[in-house]
């Protein structure tokens, strides 16, 4: 498969048939202005920029890994440096009135700012594309007002305040996206409850089916993959609904199973550890004590 790497704002503009950017590290572009002569169909695109993209018209399927998402009206997709995507479907023509846009910025823009420390907390940059954010018109207006401020800042003569104001508006935009995702989690309570139930059933089936013998202690990545979700999205969903992350739920399940086995079985502690997926007895003992305050033998003897 052919590969194409996007390492700079200038390179992104050139690929999309756009004029040179007004700022070397940040740009807001309208999809209707794209005039590319390159055909990206089936091309592996390695994007080394942060991007927030709004799509309002269908234009084929974008695949991330094994998952695909058919763009609907008013959805935001987030990508972080190093993510790989492939495009399948007919490229949109220049006369298609797509009202979408993309905010792109290079990691160097925020390198020395507080946003650099905070950027990883926006877990939606690591959601799968099928977990996109669906916006209301009011939410969209809020974001586009901030985009206008960003464009205004980099379009005028730059001064000592310009970069800070650009970064501040990007950070505010991302904070609003966090709020809008909270709203999306809240409005999908029934769907979320179904996912939580499936998650709990998966944990039980993991041990009943003997998967533990091959894969060890269950992990978030395995559970998320079985649910067709990204690990970050699953953890955020569970945190919103239950107050505990996916990892915390898994640990709680393993501890409760360990407690029951310790009290109901006469098996050696090392054997119980193996049955739970711990390769070494000491790891099981350390894990159990960190969660309960007691070693497995102490817990067994006090009951």
Would you write up a description of this structure?
This protein has 13 helices and 10 strands. It is of the alpha+beta class and 303 residues long. The strands form 2 sheets. It has a 5-stranded mixed beta sheet with strand order 1-3-8-5-6. Strands 2-9-4-7-10 form a 5-stranded antiparallel beta sheet. The longest helix has 26 residues, at 162-187.
Q: SSE order in H/E notation?
A: EHEEEEEEEEHHEHHHHHHHHHH
Strand content: 5-15%
Mean pLDDT equals 88
CATH topology annotation of the largest domain: Jelly Rolls
Total helical segments: 13
Q: What fraction, in percent, of the residue positions are helical?
A: 40-55%
Oligomer kind: single chain
Label the overall shape: elongated
Taking the sheet with the most strands, its summary is: 5 strands, mixed
Characterize this entry briefly.
The chain is α+β, with helices and mostly antiparallel strands. 49% of the residues lie in helices and 15% in strands. Strands 1-3-8-5-6 form a five-stranded mixed sheet.
């Amino acid at each position: 498969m052919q590969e194409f790497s996007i390492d700079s704002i200038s390179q992104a503009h050139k690929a999309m048939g756009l004029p040179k950017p007004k700022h070397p590290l940040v740009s807001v572009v309208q999809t209707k202005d794209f005039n590319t002569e390159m055909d990206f169909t089936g091309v592996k695109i390695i994007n080394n920029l942060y991007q927030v993209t709004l799509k309002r018209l269908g234009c084929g399927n974008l695949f991330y890994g094994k998952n695909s998402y058919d763009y609907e009206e008013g959805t935001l997709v987030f990508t972080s440096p190093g993510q790989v995507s492939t495009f399948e479907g007919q490229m949109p023509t220049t006369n298609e009135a797509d009202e979408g846009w993309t905010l792109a910025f290079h990691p160097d823009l925020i390198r020395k700012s507080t946003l650099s420390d905070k950027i990883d907390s926006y877990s939606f940059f690591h959601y799968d594309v099928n977990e996109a954010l669906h916006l209301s018109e009011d939410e969209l207006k809020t974001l586009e007002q901030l985009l206008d401020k960003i464009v205004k800042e980099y379009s005028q003569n730059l001064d000592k305040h310009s970069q800070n104001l650009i970064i501040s508006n990007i950070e505010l935009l991302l904070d609003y996206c966090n709020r809008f995702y909270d709203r999306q989690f809240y409005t999908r309570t029934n769907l979320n409850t179904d996912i939580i139930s499936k998650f709990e059933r998966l944990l039980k089936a993991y041990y009943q089916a003997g998967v533990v013998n091959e894969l060890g202690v269950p992990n978030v990545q395995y559970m998320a993959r079985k649910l067709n979700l990204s690990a970050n999205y699953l953890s955020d969903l569970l945190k919103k609904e239950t107050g505990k992350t996916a990892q915390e739920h898994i640990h709680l399940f393993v501890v409760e199973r360990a407690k029951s086995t310790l009290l109901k079985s006469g098996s050696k502690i090392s054997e119980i550890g193996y049955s739970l997926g711990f390769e070494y007895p000491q790891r099981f003992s350390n894990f159990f004590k960190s969660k309960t305050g007691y070693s497995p033998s102490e817990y067994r003897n006090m009951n």
